[in-house]
Amino acid sequence: MTQHDHVHDHGAGPHGHDHSHGHGEHGHSHPTGFKGFLYGIFVPHSHDAVDSIDDAMEAHAQGIRALKISLVVMLATTVVQAVIVAFSGSVALLADTIHNLSDALTAVPLWIAFVLSRRVATRKYTYGFNRAEDLAGLFIVLMIALSSIVAAYEAIDRIVNPRPVENIGWVIAAGIVGFLGNEAVAVYRIRVGRKIGSAALVADGVHARTDGFTSLAVVAGGVGVLLGFPLADPIVGLLISAMIAVLLVGTVRSVGRRLMDGIEPELVDRAEHALTHLAQVKSVEQVRLRWVGHRLRGDAVVTVAPMSLAEADRLAVAAEASVKEHMPNVDEMAVRVTATK
What we know:
Layout: E1 3-6, H1 33-42, H2 56-88, H3 91-105, H4 107-116, H5 132-160, H6 168-196, H7 199-226, H8 232-259, H9 265-276, E2 281-292, E3 295-304, H10 309-326, E4 330-339
Parallel strand pairs: 3-4
Antiparallel strand pairs: 1-4, 2-3
GO biological process, one term: intracellular zinc ion homeostasis
Region (Disordered): 1-30
Family: Belongs to the cation diffusion facilitator (CDF) transporter (TC 2.A.4) family.
């Protein structure tokens, strides 16, 4: 026997190893100090808690629940701010309100994507519908870009055609409300996104977190007006649009990586580690993984000593089971067993 290909959706088999090692370790480093602090806030990993959810349906349910709750919170925050915009005339608060509304609306396509991902594969979509989540990520990118353009336009118009800002105290209060609402949504979305491995949901959480800091910028603009600098309000509006544009770069990178089948190297390391736990495996020649929505699929080639077809079949089953045990987000792992000469 020289070669054996096998794909399985179930997993059971002896591994002959213990589990004293840490599954969460990975092989690359992140920035430290203040840069590391900012990196952790604005570039959180979607796979940080990849071991937490091992059931696809439970992952979908948690994702939908997070979107429902965050949508309600963000809409409530937006309504409060819109009311204050109506009688204050603050362009900075208007820019922040528009961005918060766009942030709330990004939950809708993600919600649709999570619902679609529950559908079974068809003859036309043989891999299922999990990619809808990545398309929703593209929508998030477009919404961020649109909100940046609208915020910049309104700020420039207010600089060219200045109008007085009234009820500054309420404007400042609305900015604080915006920050609290956004940060609550950000923490929740990022935590659930990490738990289920959803890059789109994590990106949406980062989007909300940046909105929170732009809300604080509205507070700064209001304080500036109180101190006798009326242009502080539209200038802060421009700063908000610039911050949105900066956020856009990171989000495009994250979503684009998923669309290009990019994978975190430490996940490949973990899959190789799981395969080498099998005593019969001499070496791992190749491991390929890709995200399909918030689930993983992949294949591998392992080298073994000469063995019968039945033994190779059992090894393929055990190899897939070992990978799934180490990486619960993996739905399918096709293992090809190749015998050395």
